[in-house]
Amino acid sequence: LQQSWRQSWRRRSVTCDRVFCDVVAFNKLIGFSPFYKYEDVLVRPSMAACRWEWLILVLCLPFPLALAQGVQNCPPRNELEPCVCTPKKNGLDILCEFTDLNHISKAMAVLKGKPSIIIFYLKLRHNNLPKLQSFVFLGIDIRHLTIHNSSLSVIEESSLSSMGKGLTQLDLSQNRLSTVPSPAFRNLHHLLILNMNHNRITALHSKAFEGLDTLEILTLYENKISNIEGDAFKGLDKKLRRLNLGGNKLTSVPQEAFSILDTLKKLEMQENSITSITEGDFEGLKNLDSLGLAHNHLREVPGRVFSHLTL
């Protein structure tokens, strides 16, 4: 009986050692080993320690399995039509083209019913979408949103508010926006890139981009901007490094508006109607290393206007 007990104990001990070795290797793989260093695998652990490591393995097992699964699944195709979904490494890529608000709203309702999925790209292109309604994206985790060439002229205040924690890129190019929809932008505290090219914006009003304190790139090419108020860029002084105002109707450099943008690296003002520049126009742009002024109506340039820049 005593010999049988010893054999049984040895079997359990060998099994325990094998499990322990597997666990240590597993913990090394995921960078987590709270009890032993990797070299301690050569040291026989106690049965209690082995049971603890086995428990850790059981608790942690779903984590690497979830990582291994990686790609998320699209909703059934018939539920999203006419939108098309493609699984990608970082989330789903959803494209809705040549449709209207009614069909887009139905597709968004399907996505709202699946709160665990990540929409890495939501691209709404060539649609009839004159107004972006309040809470249309509520409950959907979207990282990059494109609404392109869709006749968009109104963005309601709460239409983007639910996206503040995840949205990093917003493309509203080639639409019919006549003003910057500031109230809709105020909660987008993680936005890095904002593209409003090819719209109908005529002026940048006071605090137009307030709340976008993480914004790095702002592009407003080919609008109709003729006036930029002194504090139009308030709130963009922390991160903004590229600003495109090309293709507008500016007749002078908005010196006061630029004065706070000391992080700006690249400024594009080509294809405007600027007739003159003065020595103080770019003084606030301490870190500027690229300036585009081609295709304006400049008659002369003061000798020291760029003396403080690192161009």
UniProtKB/TrEMBL annotation:
<dbReference type="GO" id="GO:0005615">
    <property type="term" value="C:extracellular space"/>
</dbReference>
<keyword id="KW-0433">Leucine-rich repeat</keyword>
<dbReference type="GO" id="GO:0031012">
    <property type="term" value="C:extracellular matrix"/>
</dbReference>
<keyword id="KW-0677">Repeat</keyword>
<dbReference type="Pfam" id="PF00560">
    <property type="entry name" value="LRR_1"/>
</dbReference>
<dbReference type="InterPro" id="IPR001611">
    <property type="entry name" value="Leu-rich_rpt"/>
</dbReference>
<dbReference type="InterPro" id="IPR032675">
    <property type="entry name" value="LRR_dom_sf"/>
</dbReference>
<keyword id="KW-0732">Signal</keyword>
<dbReference type="InterPro" id="IPR050328">
    <property type="entry name" value="Dev_Immune_Receptor"/>
</dbReference>
<dbReference type="InterPro" id="IPR003591">
    <property type="entry name" value="Leu-rich_rpt_typical-subtyp"/>
</dbReference>
<dbReference type="Pfam" id="PF13855">
    <property type="entry name" value="LRR_8"/>
</dbReference>
<protein>
    <recommendedName>
        <fullName>LRRNT domain-containing protein</fullName>
    </recommendedName>
</protein>
